[in-house]
Specification:
alpha/beta
Length: about 475
């Protein structure tokens, strides 16, 4: 190994749910190259992103703090990332690293990089109508990788892949890789409810091929986008190996949150505190410091990533992380007393909710009426009903009361530890409309995404007015 400190190459893949990866047991071979990388490193089988969506999730990933530590809970976070936290980019720069972020400019959670580069990660190209997002990222990433490697400093390269994020438009032949039927079959009307959902219908219809009637076709596009991204990531991995960087580089594969497809009426998006949005991958490869082929069954959270990365790099800080170092779990020396199985969950995307998840139970509590007209309290038995289709809150009031108390005790403890109020309570302008919804109908009538451009702009700090009809440009 060279005298230079190890490099870090970080794949922050947006909207990638782990149960749609073949390395996690999915029946479609979506990720053969990431599967191979996992066989050369360690894979965490029960990794969760407890606070969705993008902004709070990346804030936690890149600071090692939970939502109480970051004070960030909403997609449309108001204000900068708090000065009381230190980002991974800032800590690595102070340790002599060059740092570059690709594809995540303008979001407060990406603070602290020396260099920001962008690529087209939303719009389809005019000729094919398809979106070769990962190849466009490679066009930017490979020259930057060469530049960073030529320096005499170690580097931290963070890349935000967007292929699993809507619009799902993988280029040929991936759009037919997992679908061989007729997506315009007039006898199949499963997409009708999607198009009729006013807040999202026009947006989804703007990128799904006209006349599509079968929801399975859209899910196949999600899976095809993952497969396309996987093979394109392999191009980067090959470049890393051919440049002689493989032995001196920690590679991190993870995601900010999962994705709802046709589940729970939360069509082709990432809201709702169901497990499809909470389950994300974590794969680490680091020759000589991480064993090959290890699978860790302990529960881990997105806030564990930064302290684990720093520990693997042997960089010490005086930061009191909320997340834990996973190195003992990686080596198989973790003590039972350090493990946990239940945790607090939050969302501020298109609904403001929080809850409590245990291995057996999922409690979801609405803090405002939601635009899906769902009940205020939801309870699911994850053992008997892992897909969370049967709400048993009314049948199990004692379980609801017990989990609610567990949740409130945890909130009180974290508020006392941080000296701040739970941000889920204070971030009442989470939708940018300066009001609190008093009914589901009001929420349904108020929230609307009309185009890809408006959806893209919501990823930045800029507020998007509901009445905007023209495309909104953004750095994301």
């Amino acid at each position: 190994m060279s005298a230079k400190k190890p490099n870090v190459i970080f794949f922050g893949i947006d909207s990638l749910r782990r149960d749609h990866m073949s390395s996690y047991g999915y029946d479609r071979l979506t990720t053969p190259y990431l599967d191979k990388l996992a066989s050369q490193g360690v894979l965490f089988e029960k990794h969760f992103s407890p606070s969705i969506p993008t902004t709070p999730a990346y804030a936690s990933m890149l600071t090692g703090m939970d939502v109480f530590g970051t004070d960030v809970v909403a997609l449309r976070h108001e204000g900068p990332l708090g000065g009381h936290v230190h980002t991974l980019a800032e800590v690595l720069e102070s340790s002599g690293y060059n740092t570059t972020c690709i594809g995540f400019t303008g979001n407060p959670s990406s603070r602290g990089f020396q260099n920001y580069l962008n690529y087209e990660s939303w719009l389809p190209d005019s000729e094919s109508g398809r979106a070769p997002k990962a190849e466009l990222l490679n066009d930017v990433a490979i020259p930057e990788l060469e530049r960073l490697a030529a320096e005499d400093k170690p580097f931290f390269l963070f890349m935000r892949h967007m292929d699993p994020h809507s619009p799902y438009l993988p280029p040929a032949p991936f759009e037919r890789m997992f679908y061989g039927k007729d997506e315009r079959d007039s006898s199949n009307q499963s997409m009708e409810s999607v198009y009729n959902f006013k807040p999202f219908g026009d947006y989804i219809g703007s990128w799904i091929p006209e006349g599509t009637t079968d929801h399975e076709y859209v899910t196949a596009q999600y899976d095809g986008a993952i497969a396309y991204m996987d093979i394109t990531i392999q191009t980067l991995l090959t470049k890393i190996a051919d440049m002689g960087l493989e032995e001196d580089t920690l590679i991190v594969i993870t995601s900010d949150h999962g994705e709802t497809l046709y589940e729970h009426d939360c069509y082709f998006d990432h809201h709702g505190l169901y497990d499809c949005t909470l389950v994300v991958p974590l794969i680490l490869k680091f020759p000589g410091r991480v064993p090959s082929g290890r699978r860790v069954s302990d529960v881990s959270l997105i806030s564990d990533i930064m302290p684990t990365v720093l520990d693997l790099l042997q960089i010490e800080t005086d930061i009191a992380f909320d997340g834990r170092k996973l190195t003992s779990a990686i080596t198989g020396t973790a003590e039972a007393s350090t493990q946990f199985s239940e945790f607090y969950i939050t969302e501020c995307t298109w609904m403001r909710k929080h809850g409590w998840r245990t291995p057996e139970w999922k409690l979801i509590c609405a803090l405002e009426p939601d635009f899906h007209f769902k009940p205020e309290i939801e309870l699911y038995n994850l053992t008997k009903d892992p897909l969370e289709n049967v709400n048993i809150a009314e049948q199990e009031p004692e379980v609801v009361a017990f989990l609610t108390q567990r949740m409130h005790d945890y909130i009180a403890r974290r508020e006392e530890q941080t000296g701040r109020t739970n941000p889920i309570y204070t971030n009442t302008n989470w939708h940018g409309q300066n009001k609190i919804f008093t009914s589901s109908q009001e929420a349904y009538d108020s929230l609307y995404i009309g185009s890809i451009n408006v959806a893209r702009s919501l990823q930045s700090k800029e507020k998007v007015q509901e009445e905007q009809k023209e495309p909104v440009e953004s750095n994301d």
